[in-house]
């Protein structure tokens, strides 16, 4: 009965979003989404999201200075930088390399750079999380990813690259929306929304249990907790937050 209900409600969403499905079929939606809609949506959405996550992020990034290299520098790689919503939480003087698969985020990123002069920006790389070959092995003291593992093609492949670019003793910081408890109504609605949400929001997957991937990765230490971020009527309320040490 539950599976039948999910399929029926998914079909209803397809009908409601039929113009987008039509544009996708014609090959128009994907380039429009990447270039215009998704950067615009993220900039507006994160203005709301940041108010909800400000305190958790302050706590999350509080110990970033502990991972400075012996020289006293803190070299940080942010994967999927987007509009630069995390820059305000980075310690003064840290050297940030930004990456994103979508070059159209650079305009919003420039605005964030202007607001956060305490951070030194090294460069911007157009690269997927699974292929960071432009970043040398063991060259980073910290890697940050927030709201990115939901949309990569391979979570395990991305974590493998994170481990490669981190120096021994470096840290990986994360804040990701994840699948709700499988017995909950939240999970039911995540499954209903899944196909349409993934199409509309540039490959974002609602039902990934990313904590399993982190637990199975070869980190020497994992600090992870589950939290709920109050985003009414949104299927992305369950989150994991924490950091892992190489």
From TrEMBL:
Gene3D superfamilies: Vaccinia Virus protein VP39 (3.40.50.150). Residues 77-174 form the Methyltransferase type domain. Keywords: Membrane, Transmembrane, Transmembrane helix. The keyword Secreted does not apply. Pfam families: Methyltransf_11. The keyword Transmembrane applies. This is MET7A protein. One of its GO terms (molecular function) is S-adenosylmethionine-dependent methyltransferase activity. The chain crosses the membrane at residues 7-29. It comes from Chunga burmeisteri.
